[in-house]
Structures are given as C-alpha cells and as structure tokens.
TrEMBL record:
PROSITE patterns reported for this sequence: HTH_CROC1 (PS50943)
Domain (HTH cro/C1-type): residue spans on this chain: 10-65
Organism: Micromonospora qiuiae
Classification via InterPro entries: Cro/C1-type_HTH, Lambda_DNA-bd_dom_sf
Membrane spanning residue stretches: none
Protein's recorded name: HTH cro/C1-type domain-containing protein
Gene3D superfamilies documented for this protein: lambda repressor-like DNA-binding domains
Length: 395
C-alpha cells in the first residue's frame, strides 16, 4: 500500500472501513463525485486540511496516507566516525611510493564537485582516504596547497551533518597548515570554512575577527602584485574573490550578532569583488552577494525588503550560476526566515524548491529535517511538504 498514490490509499482505507463512496462523502460533507475523483487521482489533494479531514474520517493518522517511501534517511554516523578516526591519526604510515600529486589534485576536484552537488554520503566515504593520501605525500608547498582545501571540505561536510565541533577541529587543522605557508591567499582559503564552522558553533565574534584579518591581509598582498603578468593577474583575481567571500562571512557573523548596519556595509564592500569571477567553482559572485543581502535584511526584521530581494535574485540569470549546494542551502535559510515570521505556506514552498535543487541538502541534513517537521505541522503547509515530512519521518 505504501507504493500506491494517495487517492488509491484513500480508496483502500475507505473499503477497509466498510464505507461506500456516498457514505464517505456524507461524512466529509463532500459530493460522491468529489470522492470518486480523489480516489481515481483526477483531483489532487493539495491542502493539508483536506488530507487531515480525510484521515480523521478514516480513523487513521495522516502520515499513513502520505508515507510513499517509509524508509529512514541513510544515517551519516558511519561516515562521521571514519572522518573522526582519520583526524585522530597523528602518525600516518608513509607509502613505498609517494602518491602522485596530479592524481591527488584530480581526487580533490572530484570531492569539490561532490560538495557543490550536495553529495554528502559520498563525501563522508571519500574524504578520510583523501586526507590520508595527501598527508603521506612528499611535504612541500604543493602538498600544503592540497591539504588546506581537504581539511576545509571535511569541515564544510561535517557542518552539513550537524557535527559543528568536529568541523571546527578540521578547519583549525587546515588553518594551522595554511599559516605555516605564510601565504595570505592560502590562509584566506583556510579561513572561509573556519568562519563557517565558528558561526555554526555560535562563535560569531571569532568568525568575524578571523574573516576581517584574512581579508585585510589579502589587501596588503594585492598591493604588491606584479602588473602585466598573466599569473599575477589570475592570482589577484582569485584574491579579490576570496576577499569578497570573507567579507560575506563577516557580514553574516555580524548580522547574527544583530549589528545589521555593519553587516550591510560589509556586503557593500563585497560588491566590487563580486564582478571579478567566482571562488571555489562558482561559490562567489553577484548572486552570492545578493543572497547575503536577503539574509541580512531578514535578520534586521525587514521581511518585505528581504522578500523582494529574494524574488529578484531567483528571477535573475545569475542565480543559476551558483552551485546546487549553495542555492539549496540559501533556500533553507529563506525557508527558516519565512517560518520564523509565521509564513508557513511560503516556507513550505521554499523547502520543496530546496529539495528539488539539491535533494541531499534536505534529506541528509538533520537541521533541514527539523525545519520540514516544523513547517509540515502547519495547516497552511503545502500537501507535498507533508508528504516529504512523512518520507523523512520528520514528525
């Protein structure tokens, strides 16, 4: 029965209760034709209130009508434990032949792509081995340039599965490697996931300080860049994108501390860098800046302005330039914004859009499942969200 459409399940439960379509219609205060169309799937049950009325009339829980896929989401515990074990290996056995750096770079790029597409279970399985492989490579600047983003990816993935303190540890390890290089740009790369881990753990002041210091060091580094050389120009463009990313992290940290005017000023400072290009394969640019503007306005309590900016962002072509993970994570923040102000119908639609953008961002994240459960409990939530809550067992 769990594989049947909702209308067919209604029909089977009606028969179990020994009711004709007319008797069932009378109990609901509907016509026999209305019941027939529901059971044949001609009329879709879009309103949660209708689903609950039907469930009450059939004397069953509404989740019984909606549980299309009753399986629990795949647990992340095993993957988290493998990462924890990898981080606890302070002495990694060296290989007879050092790993090929080109292959490690390819593996790192594959891991980055997995993150951009929110493939968190795959990342939890991949990252421990990648970390060990990079750690046994021949020491040097090239290895450090790989090790820093590996630690960063580990931190970002752990945040997704509600492992904030462990994410902070991984980000801190990456920062230690980065600082040893004395390269402001490598340190900036390490600072981005560090700021996210600190913010996730509620340490907004520390995140703000780390982002501002790293951004300031990039400015000083840029001033000494050699003009006219392609390599220097590329490096400068990357530094400006990194600086913009750090400014957005600082803005979010300040907004969380309710210093909204400072947050808006920091976003304004990121605008210039946003036209340069993208950091991390599309993670920074004009769309990223506008997304943070929406969240800052929401933090200020100005929901009308935030909503207008949000709708304008989604209508623009640059919205699609952001990776699926970035878009879905932002949509979860917007859904949280709507839910906090009681706009549960808008929150529900936004959650469904986030799931359609990057499924794992909703299905694999405990915080997202909690939000689904909260919104699905509202009578104004879309019926599709109630079905999603049943699928996730988020009740």
């Amino acid at each position: 029965m769990n594989e049947l459409p909702v209308g067919r399940r209604v029909a089977q439960w009606r028969v179990r209760r020994n009711m004709t379509q007319q008797q069932f219609a009378d109990r609901l205060g509907k016509s026999k034709s209305w019941v027939d169309k529901v059971e044949r799937g001609v009329r879709r049950l879009e309103r949660v209130s209708n689903l609950r009325e039907i469930a009450d009339a059939l004397r069953i829980d509404v989740q019984v009508l909606l549980a299309e896929r009753p399986a629990h989401p795949a647990p992340a515990d095993a993957g988290v434990e493998r990462i924890r074990a990898a981080l606890a290996r302070y002495h990694v056995e060296g290989a007879p032949r050092p790993p090929d750096l080109a292959q490690l770079r390819a593996s790192l790029e594959h891991a980055k792509q997995s993150y951009r597409h929110a493939r968190y279970p795959a990342l939890l399985a991949l990252l421990p081995g990648l970390l060990d492989a990079v750690r046994v490579a021949r020491p040097g600047r090239a290895t450090d340039a790989l090790l820093v983003p590996v630690y960063g990816l580990i931190a970002l993935t752990l945040i997704k599965v509600d492992q904030g303190e462990l994410a902070w540890l991984a980000a801190d390890r990456g920062m230690a490697v980065a600082l040893a290089t004395e390269d402001p740009q490598v340190s900036a790369v390490a600072t981005v996931p560090l700021c996210q881990a600190l913010r996730y753990c509620g340490r907004n002041g520390a995140a703000l300080r780390a982002a501002v210091v790293a951004a300031h060091r990039l400015v000083r580094s840029d001033s000494g860049a050699v003009a006219g050389l392609d390599r220097a120009a590329t490096r400068e463009a990357g530094a400006r994108s990194l600086r913009g990313t750090l400014l957005l992290q600082a803005a979010l940290a300040v907004a969380d501390r309710t210093d909204h005017d400072s947050a808006r000023k920091l976003v304004d400072q990121a605008v210039e860098a946003a036209e340069v290009g993208s950091y991390g394969g599309g993670g920074f640019g004009p769309a990223a800046v506008q997304a943070v503007r929406v969240l800052v306005e929401a933090a200020r309590g100005d929901l009308p302005t935030a909503t207008v900016r949000h709708e304008r962002l989604l209508a623009g072509e640059r919205w699609r330039w952001l990776p699926p993970e970035h878009r879905a994570a932002y949509l979860l923040d917007v859904a949280r914004m709507y839910a906090a102000t009681g706009e549960m119908a808008c929150a529900g639609r936004t959650l469904l859009e986030a799931e359609g953008t990057a499924r794992s961002e909703v299905h694999e994240r405990p915080a997202a499942r909690d939000l689904v459960a909260l919104v699905a409990g509202s009578t104004t939530a879309p019926a599709a969200l109630t079905r999603l809550a049943a699928t996730l067992r988020a009740t």
